[in-house]
Amino acid sequence: MSAADVHLSAQPRIDTVVTGFTAGSGRVAPTVLRTDYAGMAWIGDRPDDETGLTGPDYRRRSFDTRLFLPDTHWYNADLLADAEVQASGALLQVAATDRGSQGLVGAWAEPDVEFYEHPDGLGGVGLCLWLRGDIWSNVGLSYRVTVLCAPEAVLRAGGTDDEAHEDVAPAMPGGGAGASDEG
User: Fold this and answer.
1) What average pLDDT does range 134-150 have in this prediction?
2) CB within 8 A of 178, min separation 6: which ones?
């Protein structure tokens, strides 16, 4: 459960198809689809549009939330056995506190990525970013998720229009996207 709001703001997804490259052993590797997902996860307050600063809410808050990436492809789970997934995150902002100093970050675990079934019961699995930790102030985390898989593993391409990049994704059971559960 999350005591802090988590807001996801995705950047445009980048898809790259690599065909017939030579692997280290001199053999030709199969065609691979590389998909890069990137964006920001604001934990606590969102930054002000004019100043770029988040509020001075200086208190300990826990977060444990799973967020569907709003532009995720929908994959055939049976064709993901050879898929490679990489996730990384970086702290971008430690907001000033009401005391005029920088806030303490606290701790956050490595971002994790899982495949989850479509929340509306459609076929396929999509990517879900899992963030968890404790913060003492409002922070921003950048994330990047890279998936390498066979192109035929993609059942449906993810959203690419402006509507797909809104910061509220479908809620996941147990503290999902855009959810804020006090406690």
Assistant:
1) 86
2) 5, 6, 7, 8, 67, 167, 168, 169, 171
